[in-house]
Amino acid sequence: MLHNVLNGCFGEAATQHLDIWPTAGGGRFRTRWQSAQEQVQCRKFLRRCDFTTKPSMDWKIVRWDFVKGVANNDFTRVVALIPVAGYLILFNDEIVRMASFNALAGVGEDDRSPFILDGLTKLRLVFLGSLLVLISFSIYRVFRPEVLEISKNDLEFSEIVRQRYSVYELAKLEENVHSESWKERTEAFWLVLGQNRSKKSLVSGYRPDSRMAMFSKHGDYIGFLAREWWFGMMHTYRPARISSAVCGVVGYLLLAFPTLDIAQAVLRHLFTG
Questions:
Q1: Which DSSP string do the residues of the chain spell out, in sequence order?
Q2: pTM, whole model, 2 decimals?
Q3: The pLDDT of residue 94
Q4: Residue 207: is its pLDDT beyond 50?
């Protein structure tokens, strides 16, 4: 039954190729034609199914544009120095012996400590948290897409392409997006009136002196092509993206614990006298 339905779906020409039977005697072939009832069943089957390929994107929190905000900011660069110089500044034995946070909370050495964590635990959390932030920063710097250095989002990159990219660069970008290894990301580029866009080159073949004519004819296409390519770059090196994001978030959480502990002790002293 499914064979009959597929024959009806692919049409008369496909049926002739799939269902060709030799007859005894003259080497002639006969064609099995589909009944009207089978064609009706085929149309119903097609209405129940959607054969268009839907582009897909990863969650924003694991794309490079989000990871950049976690792993590559001014605070990250400062915190990342702690594991490098931390032993000389914070974590040598003399500093650990003298480390006491009781004065911040206004209590003496003989009084009960208002802190949940002791001083050594706070230093350990700071060191471990800063080390994870350093790992997150390092992973980002090694695997990040270079396009993030010139554009923060897809619209900004699309405008840069319009202003600066040559005909040759656009042809290479289009070739990359239309390659078999490319995974479709944006519906704005790949879906046209509910149908999949064919991978037909539109900008290749233009001469360098025909750039204005190319943009005049295919300006919208080039804009969506640039945005598709930018989003594709945000999905490269998935393990590195996830590792950098996780290390950065966990590192910040570990750094926050000592801060919150000190803050609650100071606020308790201020409001309770």
A1: -HHHHHHHHHHHHHHHHHSEEEPTTTS-EEEPPPPHHHHHHHHHHHHH---SPPP----GGGSHHHHHHHHSSHHHHHHTTHHHHHHHHTSSHHHHHH---GGGGT--TTSPP--SS-HHHHHHHHHHHHHHHHHHHHHHHHH--GGGGT-SSHHHHHHHHHHH--HHHHHHHHHHHTSTTPPP--HHHHEETTEEPP---SSTT--GGGHHHHHHHHHHHHHHHHHHHHHHHTTS-HHHHHHHHHHHHHHHHHHHHHHHHHHHHHHHHHHH-
A2: 0.70
A3: 56
A4: yes
